[in-house]
Amino acid sequence: MDMSKKDDLLILISEKGGLQARDNGFAYFKHRIEHGYKNTFYIYERDNIDIESLSLFKRNIILKNSLMHRRLFFKADYLMLNDGYMDVFPSFKKTPLSKGWAPIFYLQHGIISYKKIHFYKGHYNGRVRYFSTSLKNEKYIVSDILQSKSDIHQINKIISKYKIPHLKGYVEKKDLKDFYIKLLNSYYTQEKNVEEVDLKVLRKLIISIGFLDCRIANCGLPRHENLQNITKKNKSLLFFFTWRDEWTKKSDDNSFLQLVRAIKSSHGILDFAEEHNLQIRFYLHEKILGLKDKLYQIFDGNIDFAGQNDFNSVLEDTAICITDYSSVAFEFNLLKTPVIFLHFDYDQYKYERGHFMSSPYDFLGVTVRTVKEIENYLSKENSYEKLNALAAVNYTKVKNDYEGFSKTNKFVDLLIEKKQKNIIFFCYNAYGVGGTVQTVINQANFLVSIGYLVTIISLRKTSDTPVLNIDPSVRLEFLNDVRSKGKYRTPLENALSKMRSRLFYQTEDLYSGLSLLTDIKLVKIIRSIHNSVLVGTFPGVCINLIKNSNNTNKIVVQEHKEFNSHSEEIKKAIIKNYNNASKIIVLTEFQISDYLSNGVKNITNIPNGIADQLSLLSLVGERKKTNRIVSFGRLVEMKQFDLLIESFSIIAVKYPDWKLDIYGDGEQKPLLMDMIEKLNLKSQVRICPPTSLVYEEIYNSDFCALTSSREGFGMVYIESFSMGKPVVSFDIEYGPKEFLKHEFNSLVSPCFDVHHLASQMERLINDNDLLDRLGVNARKTYIERYEISKVVERFLEVCD
Predict the structure, then answer these.
(1) Which of 153, 170, 183 has its CA nearest to residue 210?
(2) Dihedral sign, CA of 322, 327, 329, 332?
(3) Considering the domain 420-603 in this protein, what is its CATH number?
(4) What gap in Å lies between CA 600 and CA 597, rounded to an integer?
(5) Are 685 and 645 in contact (CB under 8 A)?
(6) Residue 238: which of 323, 336, 331 has the closest Cα?
(7) Domain-by-domain residue ranges, the chain?
(8) Average pLDDT score over residue span 724-737
């Protein structure tokens, strides 16, 4: 035994909320202790039914909710669950899943294909770092099928609303993509009245379905490692059923007792058992143990019960297992023990619980619907030999599909060998919209997809769920819930929320939404974090991270504005504090010179990045020569949409089949609408509401026209490039100047020269070769510099 692992990670494990120790949690705990891991602890309750087994490991068992449990919980490197988060979490009065920073390894305890579950990657607020599976097909279910109940409800509504043909009892990721492309095509062609909100929902469902590959541990179940030590004795014919609520009552009309009577009345089953010298045995679920006396009476005492405390003896003694849908059948498959599935209530089971099998006959064994069918099968000549032959075939199927068999524990050891470092973003409102929050979400979504633990801490919560598409694998926390005028806050929190903030400067753009409540919670959460990368996204929060974080953390400043756009007091605070951060990130080279000239050092530029959407959208088919120009932005003076409309009016009469669609809302909308009418452009120019389908609208256009007077970065430019669409723009400073290359990926006009801009749009209208060449180069610019993996690669260099 290797007893040299003195500095191993701190792991907490348990089962059934600390009430038992006999499943995967205990199997893995025992392995860790026997292999010299000093810092693995089992959390137990005083009334744990397996306390004798645990007493052999006194140094490494901890009473649940003790001071030691609470102390180690906040220091833990991993929390290993068998049944649910209450296995290892102390009993907190509220928001338990917001407590602590340790990632979760969910060992789980069954075979998912046999019983439909609604556990998905957003469970436990994105804290599940690893979710274990056993079989390759089970891994596919977890990666491409698992959804929350609310997501299933949403997709069923869309299927029904648009009469989409779908016969399966569940949807897969590829089905969602097919539905999306089908509806998007109808949206473009206007064949059906497809609503924008439904396309948005489908995009969100595609992101939410299934666990990320990097979070699936196809390692198998730790308890299966013991199967190699089982010596088969084949003494019993075992009946092993799951339980139903109605089975818990002790009256004679209990449907379970009726099933037992049918078995007792089956001469074929009893004769088969007698012929092969097999004892009739029942394994009763813990919820129906109270029916044991009733079963004795039904069988006149000629019955045996499998022990609850020693399942190994059950595996050894069982010659044939008759079950309903229990995943314990998997253990018997691995021991070449024949299994008969008695689906006596299959229709009800499929409707109420369901499974991920294509057919009930895909269960690995003989499938029947009635006790009479069991009797008929067992009465056939050589039935026992045929059952054993089928069991051998099923064993081979399972073994070939079970990658981690006999090496599960070593597999898990390797996965949790090193600490997981948290990357934690702090932003003003992750539930709203805007360039900064979109940038944070883009980075967070990609980081979790490549194996990082990511948290977004939002200073405010303004809606039930985020407007933008956050991958549910990202942990999301908030400090001040401002919904419903404080309905979700305590009286004390409501009082604190009315007091002005002392930690933020009053000239901060977002100061009106901050309060003393935000201050207190922000400092508290910062001081709870260790060994992490903390990323601030606006000056006030960055300065508070620098002042209040302990030195085990690395502070990264993401500055989204030019230095001179800040107030004088914030400029002074930036100069005083930013140099104490590990790194300052700005969006452009132009911003670097601004900050350097004001004494801010250790600075680099990393642009905003976006995920590539073209591979999905292109499934709808190529959209060329739509005779459509698009533009996006707030309808405010800075965006200068009046100049865009004026410019288009110069060429509109010449090209009556061309349209200009502007998406946005704001104070200048009445002025712009009036301008369109006066210029007689109502048939060619539309002011459309803000859209969540920016990529879809760009893809369904020929090019994008943007006329802002200034942009710190300009996400829409990059979004257009990502779709392979060039941009027509003015030659403004800062962000766009870095990536707009005239005659390469865009056409650029002298600032605010509407006639020149009109001539550039006309060139693209008339010259398809130019349009194609600029589009190809726009796409190339995006892939090389702004595709999210390239941007995050540079971000991670800063974090190391």
Answers:
(1) 170
(2) negative
(3) 3.40.50.2000
(4) 7
(5) yes
(6) 323
(7) 9-143, 147-207, 234-404, 420-603, 619-791
(8) 90
Amino acid residing at 110? G
Give the helix ranges, DSSP H, for 679-753.
694-699, 715-722, 735-739
Taking a C-beta distance cutoff of 8 angstroms, is the pair 335, 316 a contact?
A: no
For the chain, percent of residues with pLDDT exceeding 90: 83
Residue 558 CB-density burial (10 A; 0-12 exposed, 13-18 middle, 19+ buried): buried
Structure-token match 């078995």, residue found = 263
> The dihedral of CA 462, 464, 465, 468: what is its sign?
negative
**Tens digits of per-residue pLDDT, 174-185?**
999 999 999 999
Q: For residue 647, what are the CA distances in angstroms to 137, 628, 657, 670, 688?
A: 58, 15, 16, 19, 19
- Contact criterion met (CB below 8 Å) for 164 and 198: no
User: Are 137 and 377 contacting, i.e. CB atoms less than 8 angstroms apart?
Assistant: no
Q: What are phi and psi of 683, to 5 degrees?
A: -85, -10
Bridge partners for 425 per DSSP: 456, 535
234-404 against 619-791: fold identical? yes
Token reading at 321: 């297992």
Return the pLDDT at 6: 54
For residue 625, the model assigns a pLDDT of 83
State how far the Cα of 44 lies from the Cα of 68, in Å rounded to an integer: 12
Residue found by looking up tokens 């990323």 in the block: 535
DSSP states along 493-523: HHHHHTSPPSSS-TTSTTGGG--HHHHHHHH
Question: What DSSP string describes 395-414?
Answer: HHHHHHHBTTTT-HHHHHHH
What's the confidence (pLDDT) of residue 434?
85
User: Which residues of 102-187 form beta strands (DSSP E)?
Assistant: 104-106, 128-132
Choosing among 3.40.50.720, 3.40.50.2300, 3.40.50.12580, 3.40.50.300, the CATH entry for 234-404 is 3.40.50.12580
Amino acid 3: pLDDT: 40
CB atoms within 10 A of CB 531: 14
Give me the architecture of the 619-791 domain, per CATH.
Answer: 3-Layer(aba) Sandwich (3.40)
Torsions phi, psi of 497, nearest 5?
-70, -15
Calculated CA dihedral for residues 669, 673, 676, 681, nearest 10 degrees: 110
